[in-house]
Amino acid sequence: MYVSFNLLPPNAKVWIYQSDTNLSITDVELIEKEVKFFLNNWSSHNKEIESSYEIRYNRFLIIGLNENINLASGCSIDKSVNFIKNLQSILKVNFLNRLDVAYKIGNEINTISLLEFQNMIRENKLSKDSIVYNNMIDTKKLYLNNWETTIENSWHKKYL
């Protein structure tokens, strides 16, 4: 069951899917239509899942799940991953490459490989104060407070 993202509690489980490219307005509209349909039909052991989503910066799809209402089963998580794989196929983007790092310079968000990210730090093109996106966080509270952060305040700091 789809609900507004702001209705999810702070401890709601979140998954962050990062596109390897910026999504067009048409892509975002398609994602919104498809994700609402998916979330309205998403279930765990034949019970509705209270869930929501956000699309940020035309690059990130965040899906949230209120585990206070119903926990996601392995099968329901598999369904969500298959949904994301289907979106990838339709849009010709990659949402599942966890070895890509997104960083922000000015108003521009870029996605590069982890190796390129490490090289940029070594070459002083990125510093401890550079903005990165910590897609490993797993709750709405952490998403709202710690997702867009500096390298120094993220798991990325191990490359400094």
Q: What structural keywords apply?
A:
about 160 residues; alpha+beta; 2 domains; 4-stranded antiparallel sheet; 3-stranded antiparallel sheet; 4 helices; 9 strands
Give the helix/strand class. Answer: alpha+beta
Q: Quickly count the domains.
A: 2
As residue ranges, the low-confidence spans are none
| Rg on CA atoms, Å | 16 Å
Mean pLDDT: 94
Helix content: 25-40%
- E-strand count: 9
Overall spatial form: globular
Beta-strand proportion: 25-35%
Number of helices: 4
Question: What is the H-and-E element order?
Answer: EHEEEEHEEHEHE
Layout of strands and helices, then pairs:
Elements: E1 13-18, H1 25-41, E2 43-44, E3 47-48, E4 51-56, E5 60-65, H2 74-91, E6 100-105, E7 108-113, H3 114-122, E8 131-133, H4 140-146, E9 148-150
Antiparallel strand pairs: 1-5, 2-3, 4-5, 6-7, 6-8, 8-9
